[in-house]
Amino acid sequence: MSARRRVALISGAGRGIGAATARELGRRGHHVIVNYKSDEASATAVVESIKAAGGSAQSVRADVCDSAQAAELVQHVLKEHEAIDTLVCNANTAPAPLGPLSSLTWDALIGKIGGELSGAFFLTQHVLEAMRPARAGRIVYVSSTAGSSVGGSIAHSTAKAALNTFGRHVAADAARYGITVNTVAPGPVNTDATADMLTDEFRQFLCDHSVIGRRLEPDDLGRLIGLMADDGFSVAVGTVLEVDGGLGMLAQPLPSLVDAPDPRDGGTQ
User: 54 pLDDT exceeds 90?
Assistant: First the structure.
């Protein structure tokens, strides 16, 4: 009897980081459930790209911020495939209101926090019910370095900080069942969701202040999340892994103890 193919459910997997993660997990042998809310064409394209590369995938529409739809999504997957081995909560569930505190309304703040947490909350609850008896599973939340920084959107940063804390609590509870839970918190990523939000000047700033000399791409995060879903990543539990290409490190430069060439220059002294 052949081994059962692992099953991965990824929310918001039609574009950006979610799509890159879906392709990576497909490459790693998962049957990928590409969840989407409204953009069926993009989700279908991701499924077709996984199949073209020799993988297995399907798209399923559901608004994961709705408890009933999230439950129906999980039950649909379990009915067809018997298990969910990996859950990646990636859906961008609410736009971030911009501007200073003086212009921020309470409803906008709570809307962002609630939108950020609801999809993760409902999917986690329902998926854990299936993972606990199996005493195995991987859950990865996609957050942001905004959760530990200031200077951007107050609502966005507060919501991401809440997601980080939520993930740590889930990790502590789930570890006893052999379920590994972690969070990846990327810096600015080059996606269509951020294309209209960043000025050319700010894009150049990100490149100039990154150790790797460029902006993060969705595939960078997809590969990392693929590793976090792997059995070998079980030693990390409740980790919030910030990934920003060294942007945070260079924001607070320290004096060098030795004279060394810039590795980006490609030369030696």
Answer: yes
What are the strands of the beta sheet with 137-142, ordered from one edge?
A: 56-61, 31-36, 7-10, 86-89, 137-142, 179-186, 240-243
**How many other C-beta atoms are found inside a 10 Å radius of the C-beta of residue 29?**
14
The total number of structural domains in the chain stands at 1
CA atoms within 13 A on the CB side of 107: 0
Q: CB–CB of 188/194 below 8 Å?
A: yes
* CB-CB contact of 25 with 229 (8 Å): yes
Question: Is 188 a domain residue?
Answer: yes
Query: Whole-prediction pTM value?
Result: 0.86
Q: What is d(CA 55, CA 229) in angstroms, rounded to the nearest whole number?
A: 17
CATH, residue 158: 3.40.50.720
What is the extent of the structural domain holding 83? 7-249
Domain assignment of residue 257, yes or no: no
Contact residues for 199 (Cβ-Cβ < 8 A; gap 6+): none
pLDDT in tens, 144-199: 887 877 766 888 889 999 999 999 999 999 999 999 999 999 887 777 666 565 66
Specify if 268 maps to a domain.
Answer: no
In 3D space, the residue among 13, 125, 148 whose CA is nearest the CA of residue 67 turns out to be 125
Two tokens, residue 243: 């990934």
Angstrom distance (rounded) from CA 207 to CA 216: 9
CA distance 227 to 213: 23
Burial class (CB in 10 A: 0-12, 13-18, 19+), 258: exposed
Q: Which amino acid is at 126?
A: H
With respect to residue 122, please indicate whether it lies within any of the assigned structural domains.
yes
Instruction: For tokens 């953009």, name the residue.
Output: 39
End-to-end CA distance of the chain: 60
